[in-house]
Structures are given as structure tokens and as C-alpha cells.
Design brief:
9-stranded mixed β-sheet; alpha/beta; 8 helices; globular; 10-stranded mixed β-sheet
Length: 415
């Protein structure tokens, strides 16, 4: 059934130019009830803006006056090593690898798929509604049936285009494991990636993420994660930001004994904005979450951290959770906004959170300079040591590449 543009516009409150362009793109896609539900969830808010509490520091509506092509090509520094299995998403479509690791099956779906709790992730809902194309891939499903030894690498990159939307669903069967590496390299005016991970009993996923963008780009990376009994999920992300960039993780401990590690680091130069937002629901007893996020921001850069642990009254008993955010403001004019939250209704839990921000320790700087290290190099080394803790749980395959990326940024930027 064809819906008129006027009817689609009426679903939004005062749509701006960018939203009108997104509406027009939606109108060109094959219709389905699943796509319609996701689009209506997005229409409830439109592009997220500062009047929404969860988005008050990351205003996509203000940043995206209209959907325009990026003037910059995608960054070439992906985390993939030669010979790895690489899935590449571009505005023209997806390129699948010939060498899929044993134990993994790839399923292409050309029809829209349902997205649960779409109202909670407006940019995820937008991606679910707009990731398809006529006659092309809507959702890539990655089915993991056994422990895998070789990593699987996802790369998203534009080519000075307007948009790059992609959707991936990962199903981890009982006892199976996956080493997933992602490089989100920009190159499009507006890029948005949605990944849904469903982990069954005893499953394990290590997810390592590199995000890069430019100051004329908006990027969103949204993850919806569900943990089964005694499953283990480890996430490590390094973000350099963009004009506006958000890495959002919504995770639910659905069965008892599950373990989640959510670590990340952001490094922002002038004109760059990086937002780490997470929401963890401890919806089963005896679940564990560990979270460490660190950031370093230069004059004109902006870092955002929002983390929330929700522990319901009955099912959340025996929760063990700890959240820490620490930031360095390396120069006057740097901005960091942080909002760690605990919402606890159960009475038999161990939960803690902490938040600090400040400058480099002058005593440590003095000590290093006394030993002949130039000030700029000393500042870069101290900052590298500071953020390295948040990258310790990254995939062994990609950890050194992450540290090298951070090191290059600090060497080039910190003065």
C-alpha cells in the first residue's frame, strides 16, 4: 500500500529539511508492517534533539540541518588484518567475504525485519526503517553455531555520499563464540549502523569497535544486546568523534549468571564530538556488569558519557555492577559532559559508580620533563597511559591497532 508524502509528514512534529529527506527515502522503499513500525517509532521523536533528556548533549537535529554529502573520503585505517573475513557496507550495498570463518553462516534478508523496543533507540529505529533498498539487502543475519577462532570484521565506509545505513543481526547459539571487529570509517554525511546481538546459553562475544568521522559528518552506532544464561559479552570501543557521533549500547541481562564488560575511550580534537551512552538492565539474578570509560578532549572538542544501570526489584537480586568514567580536559576550552546513574530497586546487590574529570598531573609532567622528555611528548605519553586501561579487554587481534590509532592521534594533536 502506497502512503502519501503528506501522510508521512503528519507523523512528525515540525519536520526539518533533513527529516523531510529521510521521509522521502522511506517512501521509496518496499512497504511492510515491520518497516512501518520502526518508522513510526522514529517519527515519535524525529532526529533526536537537546530537548530530549537522553540527547541533551548530542543534538542530531541541530547538527543535521539537511542531509548532505560529505566532502571527505572515508578513513582508510580499518582494524582488519590481511586475510581476515571482511563484510563491507557502503552506500552502494554490501560486499560479503568469500572466506567466512568455520562455524558462521551469513543469511541475507531482502525484507524488513522487526525491531523490538524500537521506541527506546530512535536512531536505531530510523536505521531499521531506512537500511533496505529496492531489490537489495535489508538485514544481514550472522549465525554463530560453534566456537570460532578467526575474527569476523565489519567495515562501514562512505564515498563522499549523503547516507550510509546498515543493519546486522547476530545470533549466537549455545556454547558458540565470536570475535567481532568493527571499523566505522565515515565518508558519508549521515551514517547509521544498527546491530542486534542475541546470545544464548553459554555464548561468548568479544566486540571491538573503531569509530572515525569528519567535522562535516554525523554518525550513529547503535547496539541492542540480549544475554542468555551464563553468556559473556565483552565490548571495547575507541571513538574519535565527528561533527556529532554517538555510540549507544542497550544491554539486557535476560538470564542468570550472565557477564557484560562495556569499556570505551574517546579522543576528541577541536570540532569533534563523541558520545558514549549505555543502558544496562539487570533483568535476571546474579548478573555482572563492569564498565570503564575514559576520555581525553582538546580545546574545541566535546566528550559525552551517559551510563545507567537499572536493577528491578525481584529479578535483579544479587546483581554485581560497577561503572567508572574518567576524563582528561587537556586544554582550556575542552568540554566533557557526564551522567552516570544507578536505578536500584532490589535490596541484595553490589553496585557502584564513579565519575572524575581534570587535567594531567603536573607532578608527573615535571618528573618526565626532568628526564629530558619534551613537554608535548610527555603529555602524549601520559594521556596514552591514561586511556590504555579502557582498551585492555579488546580483541587480541585488534588491540595493538587500537593503541596505535590512539598513539598517532595523541602524537599529532597533544601539545
Amino acid at each position: 500500500m502506497t502512503v502519501s508524502m503528506d501522510a508521512l509528514k503528519d507523523k512528525f512534529r515540525n519536520p526539518g529539511s533533513a527529516e523531510l529527506e529521510l521521509i522521502a527515502r522511506y517512501a521509496m522503499l518496499p512497504g511492510s508492517s515491520q518497516r512501518e513500525r520502526a518508522f513510526e517509532a522514529f517519527a515519535e521523536t524525529g532526529l533526536p534533539h537537546r530537548r530530549m533528556e537522553a540527547w541533551k548533549w548530542t543534538d542530531f537535529k541541530a547538527a543535521l540541518k539537511q542531509v548532505e554529502a560529505s566532502k571527505n573520503a572515508a578513513d582508510n585505517a580499518a582494524l582488519a588484518a590481511p586475510g581476515q573475513s571482511v563484510i563491507e557496507f557502503t552506500p552502494d550495498g554490501v560486499v560479503l567475504p568469500d572466506n567466512v570463518p568455520a562455524g558462521i553462516k551469513l543469511h541475507e534478508r531482502n525484507e524488513a525485519q522487526a525491531l523490538g523496543a524500537a521506541e527506546e533507540v530512535p536512531l536505531g529505529a530510523m536505521t531499521a526503517a531506512l537500511s533496505g533498498r529496492v531489490g537489495g539487502l535489508d538485514t544481514l543475519i550472522i549465525e554463530v553455531n560453534e566456537p570460532t577462532e578467526q575474527p569476523l570484521h565489519i567495515v562501514t565506509r562512505g564515498d563522499r555520499g549523503e547516507t550510509n545505513f546498515a543493519r546486522v543481526a547476530v545470533i549466537v547459539r549455545p556454547g558458540a563464540s565470536l570475535d567481532l571487529i568493527e571499523s566505522h570509517l565515515g565518508g558519508a554525511g549521515f551514517s547509521s549502523f544498527l546491530i542486534e546481538l542475541g546470545m544464548q546459553e553459554g555464548g561468548a562475544v568479544s566486540r571491538t569497535i573503531l569509530q572515525r568521522g569528519k567535522t562535516d559528518e554525523a554518525q550513529a552506532i547503535t547496539a541492542v544486546v540480549t544475554l542468555g544464561e551464563k553468556s559473556e559479552y565483552t565490548q571495547t570501543a575507541l571513538a574519535f568523534g565527528a561533527k556529532v557521533a554517538r555510540l549507544e549500547t542497550r544491554l539486557k541481562h535476560q538470564e542468570s549468571g550472565s557477564h557484560a564488560t562495556l569499556n570505551g575511550a574517546y579522543l576528541c580534537a577541536s570540532g569533534y564530538h563523541a558520545d558514549f551512552t549505555s543502558h544496562v538492565r539487570h533483568g535476571a539474578p546474579s548478573s555482572i556488569t563492569r564498565q570503564v570509560t575514559k576520555g581525553a578532549v582538546l580545546d574545541g572538542g566535546t566528550g559525552v558519557f551517559q551510563g545507567k544501570f537499572l536493577v528491578p526489584r525481584t529479578v535483579g537480586q544479587h546483581t554485581d555492577a560497577d561503572m567508572q568514567h574518567q576524563a582528561l580536559l587537556l586544554e582550556d576550552g575542552a568540554e566533557v559532559f557526564a551522567k552516570p546513574e544507578l536505578e536500584i530497586y532490589a535490596d541484595d546487590v553490589e553496585c557502584a559508580h564513579g565519575n572524575t574529570s581534570g587535567a594531567l598531573d603536573p607532578n608527573q609532567l615535571f618528573y618526565m620533563r626532568q628526564r629530558g622528555i619534551p613537554e608535548a611528548e610527555a603529555r602524549a605519553l601520559l594521556t596514552e597511559a591514561f586511556v590504555a586501561e579502557a582498551l585492555e579487554e579488546a580483541s587480541e587481534t585488534a588491540q595493538e591497532a587500537l593503541l596505535d590509532a590512539a598513539r598517532r592521534f595523541l602524537t599529532d594533536s597533544v601539545r
